[in-house]
Amino acid sequence: MVSIVIPVHNRKKFTRNCLLSLERQTVHEHNIIVVDDGSTDGTEEMLEQEFPEVTIIKGNGNLFWTAAVNLGIRHALDAGAEYVMTMNNDTIAAVDFMEKMLYWSAKEPYALLGALEIDFDTLKPYYGGEITHKIWNTSRYLLEELDEKDWKGLHEVSLFPGRGLLVPRAIFDVIGLFEEKKLPHYMADYDFTVMARRNSFKVYCNYDAHLFTYPEEGGDHKIRNKKSLKNYYNHLFTIKGGGNLRNFTIYTLRNSPAGLVPMHLLKGYIQRIFGYLIH
Predict the structure, then answer these.
(1) 3-state SS, one letter per residue, for 173-224
(2) Is-contact 129 155, C-beta < 8 A?
(3) Can you tell me the distance from the alpha carbon of 156 to that of 149, in angstroms, rounded to the nearest whole number?
(4) Ranges for the Glycosyltransferase 2-like domain (predicted)?
(5) Pairwise CA distance, residues 144 & 227, whole Å
(6) Of 7, 10, 149, 202, which residue has the fewest beta carbons closer than 10 angstroms?
């Protein structure tokens, strides 16, 4: 059985559509845990009325992504889940999404599996994993390298985000949960998958499993799309800023080879400080 953990804070419409897509799956070997972190838009009432089978765990409004996900994972593991999937509420699962994930997890039972992300608005593939160069700390995006005929099956990657990430229980037993104290919102998912690889677990993007996403709905996308001094500060220093320098520093210190840390930090600082102004 797979326990799907979905952290939410408001955005009731997205949560409803996400859960409806999971109801429509061709296989139903999963249960759902929603961690409602202080929603004020009627999310709790909607869940109770429309999705009574969903387990609701309440937060205090200050959990952010990582602590909320960990809260749901602990509940799932305590209940005996053999697999946990982390999923954001601004996603829509294709009808055979779980079927394709379970098919490949049976063949790779100790691997982490992410899904091919499809832009909901354009219906074009948006993210299919990346390979990170250990020395130069640069990423090659697989979608840009693979021929369309190869957009199928599993492709090994260096890291993966937590949207639709299937994690076997054995991995939690070895490396623990996501790092919620040092990385409370962004980069905890990448950190987790990199740590899993360091412990000899493989990470794949499952190109057969499609997850529709809304790229522009991400918190940092909104910050970067509305350029201002306030948003520039938010991008670099606030907890929901994708360019948060503190998070990047912690991530680098935890995951870069010791001798390469200074170069990786310098390169990353330049990208974050000037990237906001350029893009």
Answers:
(1) HHHCCCCCCCCCCCCHHHHHHHHHHHCCCCEEEEEEEEEEECHHHCHHHHHH
(2) yes
(3) 17
(4) 3-144
(5) 28
(6) 149
The percentage of residues in the chain with a pLDDT greater than 70, rounded to a whole number, is 96
Q: Which amino acid would we find at residue 147?
A: D
The Cα 50–Cα 217 span in angstroms is 24
The reported pTM is 0.94
* pLDDT of 279: 63
Average pLDDT over the chain, rounded to an integer: 94
Structural tokens at position 22: 């999971």
Q: Hey, what CATH topology would domain 2-215 get? A: Spore Coat Polysaccharide Biosynthesis Protein SpsA; Chain A (3.90.550)
CB proximity list for 237: less than 8 A, separation 6 or greater: 244, 245, 246
What value, to the nearest 5°, has the Cα angle with vertex 14 and ends 21 and 193? 75
Side-chain half-sphere CA neighbours of 71 within 13 A = 23
Cα angle 105-146-218, degrees, rounded to a multiple of 5? 70
Domain ranges of the chain: 2-215, 220-278
* Helical spans, DSSP H, in 5-141: 12-23, 43-50, 64-78, 97-107
